[in-house]
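Board notes (copied after class):
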Amino acid sequence: MKPRRRVRLAFTALAFSAAFLGGSKAGAQDINCDRGDLEVMRLEFEGNTAFSDAELAKTIVTTPSAWARRYLHLPFTVKHCLDRTELPNDRARLIIFYRRRGYPRVTVDTVVKELAPGAVEVRFKINEGPPVILTSFVIQGLDSVPEKPRIIRDLPARERGRFDRFAIDAAADTLRERLHNNGYPRADAFNRFTENDSALLAWDTLTVTPGPRTRIGAIKIEVTPLAGKKQQIPTRIVRRIMGLDSGALFREYEVIDAQRALYQTEAYQHVSITPDSSSDSLVTLYARLAEAPMHSARVGAGYGTLDCLRLTGELTDYNFLSGARRLDLSARVSKIGIGRPLDGAPGLCPAAKKDIFSSRLNYYAGATLRQPVFLGLRTVPTITLYTQRVSEYNAYLRTTAIGGVASLVWRGLTRTPVNLSYSMDLGRTEAQPALFCAVFNLCDAAERDRIQKTQRLAVLSLSVTRDNSNNLLSPTRGSIIRLEARHSSPLILSDSGLQFNKFVGDGSRYINVGGGNVLALRIRGGTVFGRNLGAATGFIPPQERLYAGGPTTVRGFSQNELGSLIYIANGLDSLLSTHPVTGAPDTVVLARDSGYRRIVPVGGNSLLVGNLELRLRSPFLPQLLQFTIFTDAGEVWNRGASAQVTGVKLKVTPGIQVTAFSPVGPVRIAVGYNPYQRPKGPLYYEATQFGGAPLLCVSPNNDLPTHFSTDPVTGVTTVSQEIPPGIPACRATYQPAKDNRLRSKLTFSFAIGQAF
């Protein structure tokens, strides 16, 4: 099947699934049809130009059955019937809607047409008529307000526009909000209008009563401690966290920010800040707080296909040193059952057994101190000290003896925290020798040891997150945007061998299509440079390379296996050859045609991933189960490494997914369809039977001279392989045979949490 046809089929499947349960609101309509009721098989609007069918459908009760029921007659789909008592009310609703939006001469007729026995079409015939024009829009009462030009700028209603009462009400609300945030907490606005239906003209006046310009007077704080305890956080600390000053201009959003800052300490179970009701130019603020317990402890256990069994523990002090500082002591251990020294149950994690870096426990132990405010600004400084060992599936193992992170979170923008952090650690990164040899041309054991020794890594990072979604675990509407930049160089005290610049961006959109169904989209991209922005090659720490494939990126590929791959051979053969320069007999080693025993994900310095999925409400147990049809597309590649990548082509993998909602979050089982043959790549043999356990290139058609020698004293045979300058360390000429069985094209994955 051609790639374009695969993409078309994948997106056709999504369009089909969008109709499965039907996107609609039932309102007062009886969707449980009784015997003799007429099913609404089609809903049409005719003659509407100012407003779309979707906008009009939201204002009425009559709703058609689901697409799959109407066109495919599938079971378990939603059936909607005609409520004859609501049909005339729907006509009235449409007329009222149009008149309030500036169309006084609108007429609406309804037609119910029989399509088949027991099935009808409901059609609303609309004659909108001409709109009423707002010839005059006057705002009065703001002459005493210094910020008047800014207050009245870009209001929803405008002169010479359509006379839309909704827009005028929105303009009044906007004026109130802007005045409340500029020193007028008692400001109000109301409108009077005159309408001439025959002339289709309207005149509107918004009258504003700003009240006195008000400043903050006294700030009175009342704290209710826990029963049997005295107040834990001093009042002076509460004032500092609030950040409100007597004599400052009253701004409503600053009061809301102060309340939010107190809640974010998690030291209070109730916070309210309210002004008094006097009409003076000074307002007294009353802050009423109820303290929460100042200490908490949490323990948890879980299971992951790659983490195996894991344990977590956390102890929190919300009032460290009586300053509302938060101290978190946390510890995590994973790979229990397969990682030494707790490796007694490898059968619990069959997927992790394929990962050579899962043979040791992963762990984290750290202490994090958070200061509620910094220099009076809306920032949250954090300092962390930690030690850890963390691995990435078949890619690397990072062990940090000691590390520290200092970060500053600025919350000056609503729902858009900005995080600036600086980290430094002493650690080492272990990766498979084939990765160093094929990607960075570090084929000598001494060179690899130099790269993998303990080094100082310092990283300066800046991240911005804009979260407009409506749910942390499983959003149904809204969007999330994340941007991150990371830099490492000797300029910020990193070792000279560890230098990179990394940029990653991620954007998600969630659309509620009705009926409990959600259309979710995401695009993610990233790039990594070496010592400077123009360097596409050069050593980049494996933990900073970009990887994709797995349950959260492209589900048709196994974890980290999207992009270029390196293969580790099962065995080898020897072929006698002649040295290309000296003519002396030498040996070239080639792999037997017995396949490979392991894959080494290469990752890359460039990444692009796109996801489109339709999350469908289950017709049975809808609060527990969700079905998803998805299409993932993406690629990971290395700029400047033509020997590794012959061209960047997005891989498209559709699939299905079942999600169960649990107390720990959404639990997913996904099946992705991958029609692609594994890419060509270098083939290596780990010659552990020889002295020094060398890594030998055994790719087909390679001509690297390989020398075998035996120590006459010890009898140990050693092997060395010549790599002439200017050529790749090992040619990417090996490609596994294509397996056309359906089972080999399916990739199964299990994960906790939505994919994005």
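Comment from the instructor: The chain is about 15% helix and 40% strand. Residues 134 and 202 are 5 Å apart (CA to CA).
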